[in-house]
Structures are given as structure tokens and as C-alpha cells.
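Contributing: when you submit paired examples, paste them exactly as shown. First protein:
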Amino acid sequence: MKKVEIYTTPICGYCARAKKLFAQKGISYSETNVMVRPAKRAEMMQRSLGRHMVPQIFIGNKHIGGCDELFALERNGKLDAMLAA
């Protein structure tokens, strides 16, 4: 299983949806709360090529985008393959 990283804030409904999908699939992830750790927002923006909205999701070293992109991968049957080691 590839490493999953998600940058979030506690007041973001899209972050909650993304985390819920990972939980339903039994996927563990590393979460960085950019509200609690504001210096990590700059890191997130650098890694995501300037995107400043949360969530920003990474699978392995690949930036997949936010919640909409995550659910599109799931709908199209591509998420499980992307998560596989």
C-alpha cells in the first residue's frame, strides 16, 4: 500500500468527506492540519504547485488534488490501483 498524505483543516467538509472515504476503504493516512501548523500550508502549496485550498491529497509521491479528484478516481475504479503498492 502506498503512503497517503492529506493536508486538512478541522472546519473543512471536503476534508471530512475525503477522510471518510479512506476510512471506509480501510486506508490509513497521514494527516497534516494546516490550521494548527500554518507553516505546513506553505509546504502543501509547494508540493501541490500553488494550490491553497484543502484538502490536498498525495498518494505515494503523486499529487492527486482535492476531494473532487479523489472521488472521481473512486468512481472511475482507479483509486484502488493507485493505492496498491
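Second protein:
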Amino acid sequence: MFKCIALLKKRADISREEFIDYYRNNHSVLIRSLLPGIVDYRSNFVDLEGAFMFPDASPIDFDVITEIWLEDRAAYDHFVARAAEPDVARRIAEDEENLFERGASRMMVVEECHWTKQPA
């Protein structure tokens, strides 16, 4: 599996509830319809009231951690190429304007590791 993580910040003028509702019922539906090869798509909405912060830590500057799994590197390359097609890129950008501070968005590819046993 190939995994991408996006850290996304909501627009300041919408509530957390409006953000979650639009993301869940509109944005994620659009992304899954436009971009091929998504095996799994998860949104983790940040609850700052439950956050544990180290004394000198930078503030949390995002509102959702989105996880997207693709089958392999080839599927990821196809996903990225499709996202760059002018009509697809335009539709995504227009929808993102409804809920994100786009300049604060970050997306990365990660190597996911599962630690199921404690070291001996």
C-alpha cells in the first residue's frame, strides 16, 4: 500500500461543524469521484480540547488529517497525474475554496509501519 497524508486548515469564517459536514458530504465525495485508485480515504478531525501539547511545542495549525491509501506507486502516480489535469484541478480548487485555507495545506507521502508487538 502507498499512503498520503494531508494536513488541512479550515477557513476561519466557518464553524468546525460546518467544516466537518461539508468535508464529509461534499469534498470527500468529489475527491473520490474524480481521482482514481483510492483504496481507503479517512478524515481525522482535530479536537483541540483533547490535545496534549508540550510546553514549547508549535501550535496545531490544521483542522483535519486526511489519509489516502493507494495500491502502489503506479496508482499514486496515476492519482497525481489525474489531479493535475486542468479540468480536474479546477474542480478540486473551486471546491477547496469552500472550506480550506489553501495556502496552509500540506500533503506528503509516508511509509506506514504497524508495531504490533513490544520489543523484547
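If you have annotations for the second protein, write them as plain sentences, like these:
Residues 2-49+60-110 form a domain with the Alpha-Beta Plaits fold (CATH 3.30.70.100).
The CA atoms of residues 30 and 92 lie 8 Å apart.
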